[in-house]
Amino acid sequence: MISVETSRGISNLVINAILPCLTFNKIVGNLEDKDIKEIGAICLTAIMLFTAGGLGAYALLYITPVPEKWKWGLIFAGLFPNISDLPIAYMQSMTTTNLFSSDQVDKGVAYTCIFLTVQNFMMMNLGMFRIVGLDFREDIKHNSDEEAYVVSKQGEEESQNISDANGEPISNNNTDKLRSVNTQDMPVGEIFKNNNSTIDNSNQSIYCIPQNTDMYKEPLHIYLTNNSVTTTASAPKSMNEISYTKIKRRKRTQSLVSEYSALSRIRSGDIDLTKPLTLTSEVGNVNYGDNLVDEDCEIGIHAKDNNSLYLSAKDTISTIHNIPGNFDGFCTKYHLKWLHYILINFCRPASIGTILGIICAMIPWVKALFVHTDVHVHQAPDGEPVLNFLMDFTSYIANACVPLGLLLLGGTLGRLEINNIPQGFLKTALSMTLIRLTILPIIGVAWANKLYDMHWVDTVIAKFVVILTWSMPNATAQVYFTAFYTPLEGRHLQMDCLSIFFLLEYMVLFITVSFVISYTLKVDLKF
């Protein structure tokens, strides 16, 4: 099975490149201004789906024994289904049958992308992913007692060889000269506050032991010499006027929690959940606009003289906090931070792909630049629209969405672990599975028929997509959101509950979806 880091890299690739290309290609190529009514009906259907699932989960709070620390997790599981990789894969698999034409299948994928856009808007733009964090309020309030940084030595003799600018040795009795700091909210160069320290020994070592162990899994071992700075990964190298070296954070690949957990940074205030997180990952690890160093960081080493070193961070990697732009300042002044939060999240690659796709699809003259339409525009020398090469490019990239999405889904389910089963929770999990995979599909079939009878949707593929979406299990993104809030140490009750729920759902999913789709094709659509 692929490692957690590899899975996260693939997930970021899907979110930042493949999914935006898929969304743009399918929307531009298959939707037009005449479909605006069906797009509106799909948005309304998505809201109804989220509401019905949320109400069902809320009812279970009073009917079944739900653990106190997973009540909001249950609400989130009821709200959001998996309407990304599974329905897209299901729709594209229909091309191998004679039930729908390839154009109908592509249009169905475009409708699925609209469903996904509505869900992303609610989860990220409106910040509803933070519902999961309400189960961790006690953990967030808990203060960590560890020191942020501790300077250690390879022996008592070595520590006496490190002196400050005044020549006074820094020893166990004199370590107050080194201030405890938190790297998450300050430039890297500030780690070493003793800027003019002289190095008497030719090979000393400093261990940096971070407070936030979810980011640094092991101490950074830095060798300081008269004219060089290296890490344990490389041998000492000479330095002229200015040299740079990379310090790599070592991470263990043990579990989803160890990879995604950011609870200690939330506690310390380094992550402000009232502000948008980074836009290029499913679960951001810093706030948007905070240029924190991620995997690698370069530390500038300035040589003062032969025996003195001054360490500072390179300007391009220093942490920037609370530097409001014009719009940010305007929102702060007029108490419109909620508007700033919503608009910034529109800059996510998936949102940009959808917005550009809808704009191009709804304007006939712009759409004609990408695909053949009834609108007359001049063609390229090869007889194709002038921007048709962009459609070819996005189509080529989008083909990787389904296999990678299913690979990530399988990898996520394969990493789920169950350590403890809360008393009576099986009743809750079975009840929620019944609601999600049995009751909601029945409501979905009735709702789709009503939309079709009212002519809010006029195509059978739109009706089929609506029913398929109501039949999906809950969103796998909840695994990452839960791991984001889960502490590294202690009992992981929320992850245990979510794992049980997922395993029960996917054990019966192939039965329920097969029954619903067979009924839809044979009875509703008369195939």
Automatic annotation (TrEMBL):
Residues passing through the membrane, by range: 39-63, 70-89, 109-132, 342-366, 396-416, 428-448, 460-485, 497-521
GO BP, one annotated term: transmembrane transport
Protein name: Protein ECM3
Subcellular location: Membrane
Membrane topology: Multi-pass membrane protein
One cellular component term from this protein's GO annotations in UniProt: membrane
Pfam families assigned: Mem_trans (PF03547)
Region (Disordered): 152-180
UniProt KW keywords: Membrane, Transmembrane, Transmembrane helix
PANTHER family named in the record: AGL149CP, PROTEIN ECM3
Ranges of biased composition (kind: Polar residues): 160-180
